[in-house]
Fold each of these.
Amino acid sequence: MSTVQARGPGRVNLIGEHTDYNGGLALPFAIDRGVTVTAEPAGGKEIHAEAHDLGETDSFLLDCPGKARGWRAFVRGMVAELTGAGYGLRPCRLRIEGDLDQGAGLSSSAALEAALCLALLATAGEAEPADRRELAKLCSRVENGWVGAQTGLLDQLASLCSEPGHALRIDFATLDLQPVPLDLGDWTLVTIDSGTVHEHAGSGYNERRAECRQACERLGIASLRDATIADVERLPEPLDRRARHVITENERVDEMTRALAAHDLQAVAALLDASHASLRDDYDSSTPEVERTIDQAGAAGARMVGGGFGGAVLALLRPGVVRPPGALAVVPGPPAALV
Ligand code: GLA
């Protein structure tokens, strides 16, 4: 086998936040920034990995990866999960590099997972599964079991299953995927880093997941997808607000799909604002830095994106509006692939 290279994109979630682990709806898209993994076959029994941008390395036995922290947990976890799924991996040297800021809420994690799994499979001569949703689930197990972040499937599905020029409507109850054309005319979507790094494993993310589970238990339902707005009244504070966010956010995903089909950019902007207000007031996942970033964006509509508690803001700018300093224009790019 020769040297291979795989690229995993980061993602932006247009709308549908904190709905994935609640069996709900979301509308993310892969962006044209991400992580590249180069895999070169090696002798011996080890995997050698280099996080080029960090200037760090790791080496471990292919058949006994063991636990580690930080980026090393992704590599070791991926090797263990692929092996556990029956893929015959081979010793190799991995070089990881990227153009996606870590912790900015654009899912450098899923980008890394997607690039890693495609590179590891290709260098071992293994074909990827016919259904990429299976790879997304495997990547998610790496994050849950090895990195320790109880994230849902949003980021991995966006990175692996998006289509260029489209957002991806995901129904997390059925894992049904539907590409939705994302044509914004002269309007621009940008992300702006709030300057505060968020880290899922240490943030309020896991606490919110636990609250949603408690809400389900009290309502006697399997997931908040099955809750109605009338159920909110039956929940104590703050579970009532958490559930209300999820229920109304699912509705906004469908409203967004309709607004895009109608090329109604004012409605798109209003939905971004509404999503943000719900995340801030009902989900309590904003921070003063995120609020300041939104206030200063000069956007028609804007919202925090990803897990929240810091990270990036997604803003929709009217034609001709000057981009705020540091803003990154985001367009829907291709999914993870071998380069
Ligand atoms: C993070 C997680 C996703 C999802 C979002 C919130 O990005 O990784 O699984 O839960 O937060 O929508």
Amino acid sequence: MLTRIDHIGIACFDLDKTVEFYRATYGFEVFHSEVNEEQGVREAMLKINETSDGGASYLQLLEPTRPDSTVAKWLDKNGEGVHHIAFGTADVDADAADIKEKGVRVLYEEPRRGSMGSRITFLHPKDCHGVLTELVTSAPVESPEH
Ligand code: CMX
Ligand code: CO
């Protein structure tokens, strides 16, 4: 079951400048950053709410790492802006299988690695009224030490 918005993915030309815009304008700070070579992105996750139970929402700012990446291609065509939305689920495998049954193209056979150790897959935008849609299961939250 999809239970929340995990993040909104925003494509940008210059990650550092875009991070600075979100900090200066809204006060959002970088919670996490990483390079995901498989996806061809350098990314910054800005945490929007304060939960620490794996149910937080983020903005995912994305800068391409190579000209043939999906985000680079998208920026060439569209310029900067909202690239995808991501719904959170406890079981990305089950939700992807259910959605595939409904005739929506799921882009990966098996979920791949996303931000912060999450598992992700994507639905084709042409089957989702023009919205590239990601499904995310967050990495398990470490339980506090007793
Ligand atoms: N949102 C909406 N529509 C999109 C889109 C997007 N982000 N990206 C592509 N499209 C549309 C295009 O406009 C195009 O439509 P038209 O045929 O009407 O012009 C069509 O989909 C095909 O687009 P394309 O430019 O030829 O691109 P590809 O088919 O090569 O790739 C897609 C499209 C969705 C398969 C590819 O972007 C993909 O695999 N995405 C998933 C991975 C990804 O986006 N990774 C980066 C984010 C990583 C993360 O979130 O962690
Ligand atoms: Co994403």
